[in-house]
Write a structure and sequence with these properties.
The complex is a heterodimer of chains A (210) and B (298).
Chain A: H1 4-29, E1 33-44, H2 50-55, H3 58-61, E2 64-71, E3 77-84, H4 88-96, H5 102-106, H6 111-136, E4 146-150, H7 154-160, E5 166-176, E6 179-189, H8 191-209
Antiparallel strand pairs in A: 1-5, 2-3, 2-4, 3-6, 5-6
Helix pairs in contact in A: 1-6, 1-8, 4-6
Chain B: H1 3-11, E1 15-19, E2 25-28, H2 30-36, H3 40-43, H4 48-51, H5 58-70, E3 74-76, H6 78-81, E4 97-106, E5 109-118, H7 120-148, H8 158-170, E6 175-183, H9 185-192, H10 194-211, E7 217-222, E8 225-231, H11 236-251, E9 254-256, E10 259-261, E11 264-272, H12 279-297
Antiparallel strand pairs in B: 1-2, 1-5, 3-4, 4-5, 6-8, 6-11, 7-8, 9-10
Helix pairs in contact in B: 9-10
Classes of the chains: A alpha+beta (210), B alpha+beta (298).
InterPro entries (chain A): CheC-like_sf
Protein name (chain A): Chemotaxis protein CheC
Keywords (chain A): Chemotaxis
Chain lengths: 210, 298
């Protein structure tokens, strides 16, 4: 659905947005944190057949923790930052500078883990919303993200049943000191909104060629 | 501000601070007055960074600025920031606070609203709940171990092996039961005492366990009687070869008080379904064959 040029521009833009989040996180945690978006994909969810849905990304079929927020009125949609649950204890241990053991993975999640992920989601999604607002030259209204734990398969089912069918999928590499964790950012847009975003991307592309 | 709204804000079980666009305090609710010992009159009009020095940092300055300029909301977790407001008593437990920074637009004026949630007791409660859950899981596991395992040898006990046999019978899985009885165990008890006799049983169990495959079970029925359950042995040759291997392994000398002790093992076997279709029938057949084997050795 995106041309290579559109994809490259979006990838660069989102790398700038999450870069700002990484700077803030580095300051808060006093650690070297690098966030990068190596891949951006735009999908039309309603056009995917069941096999394509199943193969979309294996992470979506597992148990996951999502922080999500609804944004905008004219330019609208829902942005979500998700982590597979097996990585949550690892991420919180990395963020808090605690030692991570395999037993941690098996233990139950507590409010502290959820609050860490909520804050990470808040910082990352704030940067993305702020960046998109500047790009589109409009103020995007949104609230603090809500955190939800989804059992295996539940997230995928909700995703494919949602009203907004256009999904921008951003793979996020999360480097804390020398450790790496993979998260996903999903931004669901209404058709008008995605057309508006692509129009802006095309304007940037034209400006670059002039 | 409307008195009713103010009364509600002062009833809340969390801290509420309202800052004007210069980041000076305009509202400081009762929760904060109780928590910090500073009344609203004392702090009103003062810069937030003066009253709460932990906010005097670029990180929070950026959050306040973004809340004022574009309505951005920021959440700061106790896990990552620890706390913001210090309690008035030095002996209060370590404060842990979540903070929410948001924009407020009222009567053509913009404000920053800060919500402070004390989560120290919540975190502690959840941690204690998790701990108690882990304890009760551990207790259940230890009860299970007590019910199904022999405390001397740590091998599965009679209850365990009977349930396993019933299950395999239900599933119609072919298996062989070997009934093992030590020869000369009484002599060891008489010569070295019961403690050394127990030690011999433990060594026997350890050596026998090394022999078995994952799905096989070596259980202690009681005294010096053991049962070995092996799945999928079908021919008589296979069964006899297995029996000889077990005998040979267990005939290797054991060392007790520096002395070599050699004991032999009498073994009888029963096959499901050929020799019986209940656990008792199979155990009786294996037991009888074991006695026949013992008589031959004598």
């Amino acid at each position: 659905m995106l041309t290579t040029i559109q994809e490259d521009i979006l990838k660069e833009l989102y790398n700038v947005f999450v870069g700002e989040a990484a700077n803030l996180l580095s300051e808060i945690l006093q650690k070297r944190i690098v966030l990068s978006v190596p891949k951006v994909t735009l999908l039309s969810l309603h056009e995917l057949n069941p096999v394509e849905q199943e193969n979309l990304t294996p992470v979506l079929n597992g148990t996951i923790l999502s922080t999500s927020l609804k944004f905008g009125s004219v330019f609208s949609g829902r942005a979500e930052f998700i982590f597979p649950t097996e990585q949550i204890k690892y991420v919180t241990a990395l963020c808090l500078g605690e030692e991570y053991t395999l037993e941690d993975e098996e233990s139950t999640f507590n409010d502290e883990d959820f609050d860490v992920v909520k804050e990470l989601g808040n910082i990352i999604l704030n940067s993305i919303m702020g960046g998109m607002g500047s790009l589109l030259e409009m103020k995007l209204e949104y609230d603090v993200p809500q955190i939800v734990l989804h059992s295996a398969g539940e997230y995928g089912r909700t995703l494919f049943n949602s009203e907004e069918s256009n999904l921008l999928l951003l793979y996020v590499n999360f480097n804390i000191d020398d450790s790496k964790v993979l998260g996903l950012i999903l931004i669901k847009f209404s058709l008008e909104s995605i057309e508006f975003l692509i129009q802006k991307v095309d304007e940037i592309s034209r400006d670059l060629n002039e | 501000m409307n008195d009713l709204y103010l009364a509600i804000i002062n009833q809340l079980d969390n801290g509420i601070i309202l800052l004007d666009d210069q980041l000076n305090i305009q509202l400081w609710n009762t929760w904060l007055a109780k928590y910090t010992g500073k009344t609203e009159d004392e702090v009103k009009g003062l810069p937030i960074t003066e009253v709460i020095p932990r906010f005097d940092n670029n990180i929070y300055a950026g959050m306040f600025e973004k809340a004022l300029s574009n309505g951005q909301k920021s959440f700061c977790s106790a896990a990552m920031h620890q706390y913001f407001v210090e309690g008035r008593c030095s002996n209060m437990k370590q404060p842990r606070q979540n903070v929410l920074i948001r924009h407020l637009h009222l009567d053509d004026k913009i404000y920053v609203m800060i919500e402070i949630h004390d989560v120290a007791s919540v975190y502690e409660r959840i941690r204690n709940l998790n701990k108690s859950l882990q304890h009760s899981i551990g207790f259940t596991k230890s009860l299970e171990r007590f019910a199904y395992y022999d405390s001397l040898t740590d091998l599965p006990n009679r209850k365990f092996i009977l349930e396993r046999i019933e299950k395999l019978i239900q599933q119609e899985t072919i298996f062989v039961l070997f009934f093992l009885d030590l020869n000369g165990f009484k002599a060891v008890n008489d010569q070295f005492g019961h403690l050394q006799g127990d030690l011999l049983l433990q060594m026997f169990a350890k050596r026998g366990s090394q022999f078995i495959c994952t799905q096989d079970v070596l259980a202690r029925l009681g005294g010096d009687e053991f049962v070995l359950l092996v799945e999928n042995l079908t021919t008589l040759d296979e069964i006899e070869q297995h029996m000889e291997e077990v005998k040979a392994l267990l005939e290797e000398p054991f060392i007790i008080e520096g002395q070599q002790v050699v004991i032999s093992t009498s073994i009888g076997h029963a096959c499901f379904p050929r020799d019986g279709i209940t656990a008792n029938q199979l155990l009786n057949v294996a037991d009888s064959k074991m006695y026949a084997d013992k008589k031959e050795i004598k």
